[in-house]
Amino acid sequence: MNLFRALLTVSGFTLLSRVTGLARETLIARAFGASQYTDAFYVAFRIPNLLRRISAEGAFSQAFVPILAEFKNQQGHDATKALVDATSTVLAWALAILSLIGVVGASGVVFVVASGLAHEGQAYALAVTMTRIMFPYIIFISLTSLASGVLNTYKNFSLPAFAPVLLNVAFIVAAMFVAPHLKTPVYALAWAVIAGGVLQFAVQLPGLKKIDMIPRIGLNPVKALAHRGVKRVLSKMVPAMFAVSVAQISLIINTNIASRIGPGAVSWINYADRLMEFPTALLGVALGTILLPSLSKAHVDADPHEYSSLLDWGLRVTFLLAAPSAVALFFFAQPLTATLFHYGKFDGNAVVMVSRALSAYGVGLIGLILIKILAPGFYAKQDIKTPVKIGVGVLILTQLSNYLFVPIFSHAGLTLSVGLGACGNALLLFLGLRKRGIYMPSHGWPKFFVQLLGACLVLAGAMHWLAISFDWIGMHSRPLDRMALLGACLVLFAALYFGMLWLMGFKYAYFRRRVK
């Protein structure tokens, strides 16, 4: 398998997902602006989303995929299928119970996540109602995560990468065609979440059927819990849940702080999140997705050289593509925000506020992406405890940073703290891999960094000049001209960056890597 081709496949579908996601956010911004309605929705959506990241895409995949790869490579099809069935049974039953608890206790959950909304009666009531609607989403999206883990282990990356597009399609349909007909239009977005969760799982069923891995959810979760593979998954998942929870706890605290800054602050950060997640998904999530199964196989095969080589390749790809992305978020935040969101009720002030949060994310973007590459270096070896310890330290660092930065930068201080915390996390993960001898850098890194620095300095100058040379907010009445200008700028930036690297002797052939 060609790793770079697999990366392009996953990144391509992820790009489609992010483009439709931006279309979704643009429609929501146009219809609702940055208001108490969007604050209520994003608070309500964040709750099942946090649980999804903790129980499904985060802790579950980190614990499940390495053990699944071990069963596949050492014990054969029947044993692997039994593991999938038992795991899906335990997962479905546990999350069904959790969903019921969440629906019943929605009011208390919303208060914990965003107590500032309690002073805005209507927003708080809306958030509670939408939390009850959306909580069952974690069942469907967790099964989606299980299906994705199975397909990725079998080197099928396309369907899992495409699935998130369907959630965005559900949002777009709801915002355009359902919301206008409801007494409370924002409720359409909540129901779109449920529809999207079902669609994401359903679209992967053909791929699972092809390899005879459609999960069978049994009626006896106690029996499934006794499966030795499930016990191992759970033993790894508990500390992994804590590790992932650390980051999510930080997000909850930040949401609470943002809800106290004033109306719109939660939404400003959310819109900045959407843009920040563009490069983190295209690079970090995509690289982590393709590396984890290959790293797990190298671990099972007891091949430390291949293991280190895979990490080295992933780190180089990350720096190559994350560095210009970070420069773009920092120097070109306002043009990006204005072009994508400055429509309808989303006014010029909102553009400025989102741009500030986005620029702050640019400071720590490389760290946010590096975590997605370095952490699998531990997970593939079934070492969850080290990232847990690091995560606890990062949570403390991030929240201490909030005390320093929020009074100075307001809501942008929250995103700055997250980015700096991620950089600290990435540094500690890297040092941990080096100390254990898991990762040995290949030759050529100093020259590589000099080439990147030169190209990024030229890129930063060009971006800053074009950002201040045009009135991006003032082009509100000419949206097509603004879109065309942004597109031309992005093409110019890409040509400038890669052209500078080529002039400095950068070799692209290194990235054409193959694995068994």
From TrEMBL:
- Report a single Gene Ontology molecular function: lipid-linked peptidoglycan transporter activity
Cellular location of this protein?
A: Cell inner membrane; Cell membrane
One GO location term (cellular component): plasma membrane
At the top level, the lineage of the source is: Bacteria
Q: Which GO terms describe its biological process?
A: cell wall organization; lipid translocation; peptidoglycan biosynthetic process; regulation of cell shape
Q: Which UniProt keywords apply?
A: Cell inner membrane, Cell membrane, Cell shape, Cell wall biogenesis/degradation, Membrane, Peptidoglycan synthesis, Transmembrane, Transmembrane helix, Transport
Name the membrane topology term.
Answer: Multi-pass membrane protein
- Membrane-spanning parts: 90-114, 134-154, 161-182, 188-208, 237-258, 278-296, 317-337, 357-375, 387-406, 412-433, 445-468, 483-506
Work out whether the entry's keyword set contains Transmembrane.
yes
| A Pfam family annotated for this UniProt entry | MurJ
Query: Which pathway, per its entry?
Result: Cell wall biogenesis; peptidoglycan biosynthesis
Give a short account of what the protein does.
Involved in peptidoglycan biosynthesis. Transports lipid-linked peptidoglycan precursors from the inner to the outer leaflet of the cytoplasmic membrane.
Q: Which NCBIfam families match?
A: murJ_mviN
Family, as annotated: Belongs to the MurJ/MviN family.
Entry protein name? Probable lipid II flippase MurJ
Q: Which organism is it from?
A: Paraburkholderia terricola
